[in-house]
UniProtKB/TrEMBL annotation:
Stretches with biased composition (Basic and acidic residues): 74-85
Species assigned in the record: Domibacillus aminovorans
Name of the protein this chain belongs to: M23ase beta-sheet core domain-containing protein
Keywords of the record: Membrane, Transmembrane, Transmembrane helix
Record-annotated membrane-spanning stretches: 21-41
Length: 227
């Protein structure tokens, strides 16, 4: 044999080295395929999350508080009731400038030989006894005063610019800041120095945005129906 000469590799060794060179290529191809699969999974998963967020977003629009009343509860608009469930009669009516002369005389209160136009309605029982006075609408008590001249005083704010006041109240059952529901008892009828001739009664007034209204024209009507 010649020194330094090259001999050809046997066929088995050639196959072995070919396989050794092929393995890295196979590993590399597998790695690329695995990485590609992971990236595709992340992209698809991210798209699903975006679709989920997009589909759930409109749920926040379902909340509607447009029908919340003054006492914080939802429901149909209340219709104003009389300030008592007792069988009361009108002792002194509301003074209406458009009323007949006879009706206007029934709406005058005499005190110290002076006539005053009634800005509300005085209710009393035929037998002259006390009766429960109730809230005609739900609202918040904004003022309570002991006043011998007016016969004690309660004010309730019903929202939408509506305020009701009660005079000649005995046995007051509420305090300023209390929330009341329609029909809640707030006191009993009493007496006042302003209108002693009315005896045991309650003087009831209604105002909307500062304008004094005739209570008798509002019973059974929601505030949105007042004119």
């Amino acid at each position: 044999m010649n020194e330094g000469g090259k001999k050809p590799l046997p066929p088995k060794l050639k196959d072995f080295f070919k396989k050794r060179r092929a393995l890295p290529a196979i590993y590399l191809a597998c790695a690329i395929l695995l990485i590609s699969s992971l990236m595709m999974y992340e992209v698809m998963n991210g798209e699903k999350d975006e679709v989920s967020v997009t589909n759930s977003a409109p749920a926040s629009k379902e909340f509607d508080d447009s029908t919340i009343s003054v006492n914080g509860e939802k429901g149909p608009e209340e219709k104003m009731s009389k300030p008592s469930e007792a069988d009361v009669t009108v002792k002194t009516s509301f003074y209406d400038e458009k009323a007949t002369e006879g009706d206007q005389q029934k709406a005058l209160v005499v005190f110290n030989d002076t006539y005053y136009e009634s800005s509300g309605v005085d209710y009393a029982l035929e037998n002259g006894k006390k009766f429960d006075v109730i809230a005609p609408l739900s609202g918040k008590v904004t003022d309570v005063r002991e006043d011998a001249f007016l016969g004690n005083y309660i004010e309730i704010d019903h929202g939408k610019g509506v305020v009701t006041t009660f005079q000649s109240i005995a046995d007051i059952q509420v305090k300023s800041g209390d929330k009341v529901s329609q029909g809640d008892k707030i006191g009993k009828s009493g007496r006042s120095l302003m209108n002693e001739s009315a005896g045991v009664h309650v003087h009831f007034e209604v105002k909307q945005n500062g304008e004094t209204l005739n209570p008798d024209s509002l019973y059974g009507k929601a505030v949105s129906q007042w004119k």
